[in-house]
Specification:
Rossmann fold; four-stranded parallel sheet
Length: about 240
Amino acid sequence: MHERARGAVDRAPVLVACSHGTSSVVGQRAVRDLVDAVALRRPDLDVLGCCVDVQQPDVPTTLAEIGDEPVHVVPLLLSAGFHVYVDLAEAAAEAPDAVVRPALGPDPRLVRQLVTRLDEAGLRPEDAVVLAVAGSSDARAVDDCEVMGRMLGHAIGREVLVGYISAVKPALPDAVETARSRSGGRRVAVATYLLAPGYFADLAGRAGADVVTEPLLSAADPAPHEMVELVVERFGM
């Protein structure tokens, strides 16, 4: 059974924060810290965490435990693809009173967190930059990632190539090599557009770049304030 982060007396919707899930203990802790920070930000709400894959509790189990209370499912996902449009939508349709809110991205706050991570990693003015994204079989999610690439490029004042870790081309290592070639052999920095540490973040680190940022969340640091606010905004109340 869940332990609810905070209690709500009124029948405000329960905020169910649904991440992808990871086998990485560090990644699990980073996501849990974000959910806990959201609960502290909104002590008037019940805030629960769950996952669409890998970890338990899953979404159907979580919604079943909530029962007939209203629920807003906030995807802790960076783009809206199969998990949002199919997995979460189907689970919500089986619940008495659940709605699925928009995914976290694209959003300027995520761009700012990417810029922060690049600065922390020592980005130089002459570096080529590649945005590392998970990839999806859903074209809408791919479009979201391409939008984020353009937004990041605008923020840092240079072209940003998008490289995909799965499902879509160009594959991240190929995007890194393309960026290196276009820049005349300069350093390539990968901005890791993943929520938290885990298997995909490890793959991003082995894609051949000279510099690789941490994911958006880190278990070593508090959840970024703007990401907490983004989750609260997606909740919608």
